[in-house]
Design brief:
Helix content is 71%, strand content 0%. The protein has 12 helices and no strands.
Length: 295
């Protein structure tokens, strides 16, 4: 198989794994009381950082670029709203909405070269536009804000990679392997989440709401998310962000909806089932269009 064929296979397999894990990573937390989520997000981010440490050691500690931490800080900021979203509008709908806006921002910034990045070309632009459009057919306040922040999380890494090809850039010679930035990215997540948690403790006059029973489920959730994100990094490298974003951000909503239907009974009634099936068909069509735009 050619290198291009191998990259495509690796990219799509990584995308599938990421979709399954992103759609399931909040499941361990669903039945546990998590309060306002501030303590939980810190536990989750601690688990994420530990996975990054393991990956970094496996990769023999590639060069650390502090700017890559910015994307992690942005993600942690969006993550603060996750618990209120799940508690108010449900796991399935929440992931569907923020996933849609995540897809829109992430795809557009890569496709059109926003924020100083190089615009990415695909062999079938029309299919790519259709795929991205079909992947974004929803909207709702907190989830929209989270989606916008999530969609910006990879911008610093892509910026470093793009500018590594320019001799006059401070990032000249930086690695083109997305996994080499995992440790810096996840360190940004843990740093920002720690700052937010300390600010929360100060605001609560050193009496934060802690939920011990949510620690192990939260840690498991963080590990699942971290593995999924590592797969996303691989998919970005193999497929390019302009292809991986619409696929990976749209798919988890359907997986989460399946959990909502069969495990948590969040979605009931024939009409709602039909709407969910319609949403799945739109998501699948969008993912297929995006995938074929690369081939």
């Amino acid at each position: 198989m050619s290198n291009n064929g191998t990259d495509l296979t690796t990219g799509f397999i990584s995308s599938i794994v990421a979709i399954l894990l992103f759609g399931s990573n909040f499941v361990p937390l669903k039945k546990y009381e998590t309060g306002d989520g501030m303590f939980l997000q810190w536990v989750l981010c601690a688990a994420i950082w530990l996975v990054a440490l393991v990956v970094n050691l496996i990769l023999h500690c590639p060069k650390f670029w502090p700017f890559a931490m910015v994307g992690g800080c942005i993600w942690a900021t969006g993550n603060i709203a996750v618990v209120p979203i799940i508690k108010t509008i449900g796991l399935g709908l929440g992931i569907l909405i923020w996933g849609s806006f995540n897809a829109l921002i992430g795809w557009a910034s890569s496709r059109f070269g926003w924020f100083g990045m190089d615009a990415e070309e695909v062999s079938k632009p029309l299919l790519n536009y259709i795929g991205a459009g079909l992947s974004v057919v929803r909207g709702c306040s907190l989830a929209v804000i989270s989606g916008i922040l999530y969609g910006s999380t990879f911008v610093p890494i892509i910026y470093i990679k793009d500018h590594s090809k320019r001799n006059d850039s401070i990032y000249a010679g930086a690695s083109q392997n997305d996994l080499d930035y995992v440790f810096a990215h996840f360190s940004g997540i843990f740093l920002a989440s720690t700052v937010y948690f300390l600010a929360y403790c100060i605001a609560m006059k050193n009496n934060p709401k802690l939920y011990p029973k949510a620690v192990l489920p939260g840690f498991l959730s963080g590990i699942l998310w971290a593995i999924a994100t590592c797969c996303w990094f691989v998919a970005n490298h193999s497929l390019s962000a302009v292809v991986s974003f619409p696929i990976i951000t749209a798919g988890p909503g359907f997986i989460a909806a399946m959990w909502g239907v069969f495990m948590f009974k969040e979605i009931q009634g024939r009409q709602n089932y039909l709407l969910m099936i319609l949403a799945f068909c739109i998501i699948l069509a969008g993912a297929l269009c995006t995938a074929f735009s690369k081939i």
